[in-house]
Design brief:
The chain is of the alpha+beta class and 144 residues long. The protein has helices at residues 4-11, 24-34, 53-61, 89-99, 118-141; strands at 17-19, 38-43, 46-52, 103-108, 111-117. It has one domain: CBS-domain (Roll). The chain has a 3-stranded mixed β-sheet.
Length: 144
């Protein structure tokens, strides 16, 4: 059964982060530049929260707050759902579905090792299914 580490091995552990002191505007600009939907909020080396597109919509726009003056720490999601490197992808998918989130930071003892997305899990499962289909096809029809 694949784990979160298997995805991180393929995509790397680079995670876009932001300080809780940064403004929402700065965070949104960083997300836009990197074409991503979430940033992990850090204090030093510790992951303390997550800031997503949904936070911008629900906690800034809908609340009428000024993104240029609102610090990320005031509107981030904390505590955040996390996985571990040895978490099975089925567990990660279940957490993400139950909490209705699309990004799951991989954190152990406060240290951030990476982040997996719902798309990463879907791609992994699709590749696994394709490999199974190819194996079964070869089994049934032999090599040609």
């Amino acid at each position: 059964m694949p784990t979160a580490q298997a995805i991180l091995d393929g995509k790397g552990g680079d995670v876009a982060t932001v300080s809780g002191e940064a403004t929402v505007f700065e965070a949104a600009k960083k997300m836009n530049e990197r074409h991503i939907g979430a940033l992990v909020v850090t204090e030093g080396k510790n992951a303390v929260g997550i800031f997503t597109e949904r936070d911008i919509l629900n906690r800034i726009v809908a609340a009428g707050l000024d993104p240029k003056t609102t610090p990320v720490r005031d509107v981030m999601t904390s505590p955040m759902a996390c996985g571990r490197r040895d978490s099975k992808l089925t567990e990660c998918r279940s957490v993400m579905a139950n909490k209705r989130i699309r990004h799951l930071p991989i954190v152990e003892d406060g240290t951030l090792y990476g982040m997996i997305s719902a798309g990463d899990i879907l791609a992994s499962e699709s590749a696994e299914q394709q490999a199974t289909i190819e194996y079964l096809h070869e089994y049934l029809h032999g090599h040609r």
